[in-house]
Structures are given as structure tokens and as C-alpha cells.
Amino acid sequence: MKTFLELIEAKRDGREHTRDEIDRIVLGFSAGEVPDYQMSAWLMAAYLQGLSAEETVWLTDAMVRSGRVVDLSAIPGVKVDKHSTGGVADTTTLVLAPVVAACGVPVAKMSGRGLGHTGGTLDKLESIPGMRIELSAEEFLGQVAEVGVAVIAQSPDIDPADKRIYALRDVTATVPSVPLIVGSIISKKVAGGADAILLDVKVGSGAFMRTEAEARHLAAELTRTGAALGREVVCVMSDMDQPLGTAVGNALEVAEAVQTLGGHGPAALTEVCLVLAAKMLVLGGVARDEAEGRDRAAAAIDSGAALDVMRRWIAAQGGDARVVDDPSLLPAAALRREVRATGAGFVTGTDAAGIGRAAMLLGAGRERADDVIDPGAGLVLSIRIGDEVAEGDLLATVHAATSERLDAGEERLRAAIRLGGTRVDPPPLFHEV
């Protein structure tokens, strides 16, 4: 039997593992038998050399088997989960979950924290005072049955391998690996008990997949691996050449999600949520086609039903549901500053990842796994690609705890916004559906 050092060497040199070897890597690390530094070395080798189709399925299956699989069969209906591969100002989960639940499709979801420049759903939820993101299996099932939605962290006994690998990837520059992304996403969904999965594969400057070809490859691998593990997986490819919403930062994004559920959110965020909700309602069997699904989702927003589910969801997980009606109860940064244009022109492009990193410098994200997030930090954009700006126009407002963080965030933000003399068309919201 090979030592773990030999397994690292094998992958470093581009050799394929056997299924037993993948089990030893994943299950051994999950059990604490493999130190972080050796697993980090293996992750880098896998990032550089890749994993075969079979290795990817074995990796995903081993991650599922590292813990308990949630049984949602007692809850009526098709349980549909949604996952985004990571973006900036991508607040769709906070909008979609109440909308879809209000339409009769139960949402039982395990989410993650921020990775690199991207925001994490759990970090956003934890910015709501009192919100619990760790529930027992009984609490999780009971809440889905009663409220229609629960979004939680991976508990120690559900897919523990992914929880540990996820944290290492974030701090070892091994996030943008298709096999590792596939293993993380699909294992969480299978372990979480989902019957069907909708995956929003982001493509562009703020995504881990920068090109359509890369995103299409990831979508194909997600679909293939999900099918190999007995799940129906549908993928869409949405744009991340600019942030989806206007708010980047945890409490700021919660406030924007509430605004969107109230029918007054940013146009791009609202449109993407309606498209994704329509697909989830079809997968959940409550809409005959996407046109009907979209109508039902829009009605849930217009009637206030989705906002009511948001209140009950927050309250069920111990949060202060008053934030839905009074977002000023959310955490706020001590300082804020307006960032204004120093010249005139058109917004010809943005580095969405750079905008995400600006929010991280402001305190909204992590550079290291043990960094503490400032829930009120972040930024709110006032421009989108294609807009015309005059000198002195507002580009964004930055929020942070100190003037030093404001300075760092503003500098990074300005570098991420490109102005030119010719108007350009904004990128499409979807590249492929």
C-alpha cells in the first residue's frame, strides 16, 4: 500500500489514482489521519495535473460517504437545490429560496462560506442578528416541512470531507479546479438529500471560469458526475463580467435581497432570479413549463408571499425577522465614503473579481481561513457596464471599520472600473441555458 507521500508524488507526476486510493485520500483526511500540509500538497497536485472523469466521480462519492446522507423522503414533493459556482454580488440564494418555497417547492440547502473574492451565503445569513446556520438533522427537516426552506452549514457529520477540503482550497490557491469544484458542489447536494439540482455556472472576470469554454466544461462535468450519483442536474451559464447586484458585502447583500423580494431590487439580479426560479419550479413539478414557472415566481414577489417566507425562515433559524421590514437593524460599518469619477466617459468594463477583492479589503471577506469578517463592510455600486458618467458622478459607496480599510478598498475598486470614450453594450445576463 502506498504511503500518502507516494500518493502525492503519483498525482504530482500526472498518474491516475485507483478508487481505493481516492478513498484513502478523502476519508483519511476527513478522519484527521492526514495533516493539512500533506493534503494541501495533494490539492495543488490535483489542481495542476487534473483528475480523470472516473477520479472525479470517485472523489465526489468518497466525500459523500465521509459522513451521513440526509434523508428528505418524509417531506412531500421534489426537493430541488440550487448552487452558484461563485460570483460577486450574487445574492440569488437569498432571493430564490423564499420565492421557490412560496410556490410550493421545498428548499433544503447546505451552503458554504466565501471563497476568495466571492461571497458566501452563510456569511450573509450570519450578518442577520441571531441567525443560526447550524441545525440538527431533526431541526433541519422540521423547518423545511413547516416553513418550506432551511439553509444551513454543513454539520460535522454531513459531508465533513468537503468542509475541511473547502477551507484548505480557499487559502492554497486551488479553488479554480474543475474536479475539485465538481466534487465540492455535487457531494454537498447529494449528502444534503436533494432530488434535483439547478446549477448556476458563472462565467467572466468575476468567476472561477473566465471563458465560455471553461464554464461549458464545468457544466458538463457537473451534469455527468451528478448523473453518475443518481441525481438530475440542470446547468445554466450566467454572466459574471460585472457584479450581478449592486451590493457587495454581507449585511449589504441581505438588505438588497429583501429589496428584491419586495419588488424593488436591481434589474439584473431580479431577472436572473426569475429565470432560475422558473427552472426550479419546473424541476420541482409545480410548473408545466418555464413560462408558467416565471409567472408563479413573479406572483410570489408581487403578492408579498415570498417576503413572508423570508420572515418565517429567518425567525425559524433564530434570526431577527424585523430586518425584513427594517434593514437598518442589520450591522453597519462605522465609516462610509463616496467614490466619485475623476473624469468623464463610459463604463467600458469592470474587473468583477477586483471589485470582490475591494470588498474583501474593506473587511467583507477573508484573506486567510481564520480571518474575522466585518458583517457591515462592503460596497454598493452605482454604475454598470455601458453607463455614461460625468466627472464627479458617484461610482460607488464603500463601507468599512477604519479609514485605512476605506483607502485600500477604494484604491482596488478604482482599478477595477474601466472608463473609455465609446459606449459599449453590456454583456448578456445568460451565455447559455
List keywords for this structure.
single chain, alpha/beta, 433 residues, Pyrimidine Nucleoside Phosphorylase, Chain A, domain 2, Aldehyde Oxidoreductase, domain 3, four-stranded antiparallel sheet, Transferase, Pyrimidine Nucleoside Phosphorylase, Chain A, domain 3
Strand order in space, largest sheet: 1-4-5-13
* Share of residues in helices: 40-55%
Q: How many helices?
A: 16
Number of strands: 13
Q: CATH architecture of the largest domain, please? A: 3-Layer(aba) Sandwich
- Evaluate the radius of gyration: 21 Å
Shape: globular
For the sheet with most strands, the description reads: 4 strands, mixed
Report the span from N to C terminus.
46 Å
CATH class of the largest domain: Alpha Beta
Name the average pLDDT: 93
Q: In total, how many domains does the architecture comprise? A: 3
In terms of per-residue confidence, which ranges show pLDDT below 50 for 5 or more consecutive residues? Answer: none
Order of helices and strands: HHHHEHEHHEHHEHEEHHHHEEHEEEHEE
**Which structural class matches the secondary elements?**
alpha/beta
- Portion of residues in beta strands equals 5-15%
In the CATH hierarchy, the third-tier topology of the largest domain is known as Pyrimidine Nucleoside Phosphorylase, Chain A, domain 2
Say which CATH homologous superfamily of the largest domain is assigned.
Answer: Nucleoside phosphorylase/phosphoribosyltransferase catalytic domain
